[in-house]
Amino acid sequence: MRKDIFERIRTIEDLPTLPSVATEVLSLAQSPEVSIRQLSETIHQDPPLATKVLKMANSVFYRRSPQPVDTLHNAIILMGLTQIINITTSISIMSSLPRDSSEEESIRKHYWNHSVATGLIARILDRKLGMRSKGREFVGGLLHDIGKIILDAYFHEDFMEAHTLSIAQHRSIHQIEKEVCGTTHMDIGFYLAQKWNLPPYLSDIILWHHTPSKASFPDITSLISIANQLAKAKELSCGGDSMSFILSDEDSWNILKERGYPVDDLDLERITFEMDALGDEVTHYISTVSDSTPTE
Amino acid sequence: MIEARSAPPQMMTDEIFKLLRDFIYETSGIFFADDKKSQLENRLLLRLKAHNLNEFDKYYYLLKYDPDSGGELRALFDSVTTNETSFFRNPTQIQALQEQVLPETLAKKQMAGESRLRLWSAGCSTGDEPYTLAIVVTEVLKESIPSWEVKIVASDISEKALRSAGAAQYNEYTLRLVPQTIKEQYFTPNGDGLYTVSDDIRSLVEPGYLNFADARRVELMRGFDIIFCRNVLIYFDDDLRRRFVSQLYDNLNPGGYLFIGHAESLHNISSAFKLVHFPGALAYKKD
After folding, report:
1. Among B80, B92, B77, B78, which Cα is nearest to B261's?
2. Which tens digit of pLDDT belongs to each residue from A178-212?
3. Is residue A269 part of a domain?
4. Cα dist from A47 to A43, A51, A74, A261, B259, whole Å
5. A246 in reach of chain B (CB within 8 A)
6. Domain boundaries in chain B?
7. Strand bridging mode B224-229 / B252-260
8. pLDDT at residue B151 greater than cutoff 90
9. Fold of B91-285
10. How many domains is chain A partitioned into structurally?
11. What are the tens digits of pLDDT across the range A4-20?
12. Which of B38, B43, B3 is nearest to B17 (CA)?
């Protein structure tokens, strides 16, 4: 019997909520006249969050100068408003979603590894293609599979069944989810994105990263779609759907090509080899976010 | 009898390095860039010793003008190639072959009513790679193997390496990545720490000499479904890489796959192939 998890999810009252500061930062991001002072004051309302943002700004991922950045204000000047907004969003969302698990090799651990890897690969591709997504690509990579964490947290057995079937049948996880759960991680994630009032580009990535031709933000959705596949090719996947693929045959690839990005100049082999070193970066990123006390 | 003690060989001058480098390039396609002078010097010292020479230019004249230099040329190829290899090298590539490329290729052939399967281990060295391919093919075909006509062509420029491939005897070290069950099934221990590859596997593999710089000979290699050419392109300069890879493309059947070494790339060498990503491995597909 087919279960419609999507119907049931609406009735769950304790779905994770976005910290109020994150909501405020996201709405600031939509406003054309946001100032450094406004943004810095908003983040400071949540001191543990402010600490983490500063820590991230000083981490190997973002650090620009040899001198440590000691205030949020300076971090914003140095890195730009958009980048700080994106760092803040990533950290608050990561902190508000269930992350820890007792099982060492749990699906949730794979989930976060895959999400961070997708974000990092998206960042590499963004730079090489000159897309100037200013950190949106990292948040997009981090959150594209957010529906999976909800499926795992609230419908663990069904999700595990889908996962096992996907590996056994060599079929993509979202096809199996549809059969087992009556819905997909894209639909669940989209529901959450709407509920949280996430920016439209993020909802778009979450809903369409497997079919970027339907996206309203085709550039960044295609970018995440490619990064997602490359992350899977490195076995940093959280689903069982690590199959082979030819990027140049994918919609995402051809969308970027049609829109004038120099995808054919990408040295995909080199990028793929460089990804071998990504495992350490992923671990480092996750520990940087986890280190200080969680924001509530 | 008094044995003449030769003086230690002189250093290789830049001039003679260029002459030797160009000669090796013309005859084998193997290219020693300017920063590889000391590598070439080290590798040729043994050849100088074998001829009791102490000057590199005398060795050059021997190669170039001695009418019997054919044998020396082959010995030279032996000494300038590296034969570092092992069974099941780069397991993710072998896994992609076993789990995806071979099943796909076989299914396509069955649909078309074909029963010939041809693989090429181009740069087979001491035979570890072609025998690995033969084992994997045997594992995938299982009991249906008698209904297939399987051939694995194994070629190399080093005759010494080919002799080892023909002998098909290997030590523990080169078998270190071989799963225990595979080892028990396809190898016989000799008792002296060596293992011999089983006759069934050996019968699928045909070792033979081939110089990849010899375009006419390479052209004759036709009708392959899968080519493994790992860590061969590193010896060539860009011109030869382009020519050789475009020949490999012609050597493949439509839908065929080319595997090159892990961390090797065809970027800027060929855009004829489609790059295929497998978990942890890359391959190139001829459409």
Report:
1. B92
2. 998 889 999 999 999 998 888 999 999 999 999 99
3. yes
4. 7, 6, 16, 40, 53
5. yes
6. 14-80, 91-285
7. parallel
8. yes
9. Rossmann fold (3.40.50)
10. 1
11. 777 788 777 778 888 88
12. B38
Structure tokens at A127: 């730079």
Whether residues A230 and B267 touch (CB distance < 8 A) is answered with no
- Please report the ipTM that was assigned to this predicted complex: 0.79
Domain encompassing residue A206: 8-291
Three-class DSSP labels, B50-119? HCCCCCHHHHHHHHHHCCCHHHHHHHHHHHHCCCCCCCCCCHHHHHHHHHHHHHHHHHHHHHCCCCEEEE
Set of chain B residues whose Cβ sits within 8 Å of the Cβ of A229: 277
- What's at A66, amino acid-wise? P
Query: Chain A contacts of B264, Cβ < 8 Å?
Result: 269
- A269–B265 CB contact, under 8 Å: yes
pLDDT higher than 90, residue B84: no
Q: Cβ contacts (< 8 Å) between A249 and chain B: which residues? A: 274
Average pLDDT over residues A221-229: 96
User: B265 to chain A: which residues are within 8 Å by CB?
Assistant: 267, 269-270, 273
Residue spans of beta strands (DSSP E) within B212-272: 224-229, 252-260
Tell me how far apart the alpha carbons of residues B198 and B245 are, in angstroms, rounded to a whole number: 33
pTM given for the model: 0.84
The pLDDT, as a whole number, for residue A100 is 58
Cβ distance B276 to A245 less than 8 Å, yes or no, reads: yes
Architecture of the CATH domain B14-80 = Orthogonal Bundle (1.10)
Interface test with A, best of B277, B282, B285, B287 (most A CBs within 10 A): B277
Q: Among the listed ranges A32-46, A56-70, B158-172, which one has the minimum average pLDDT value? A: A56-70
Give the CATH number of the domain where residue A63 resides.
1.10.3210.10
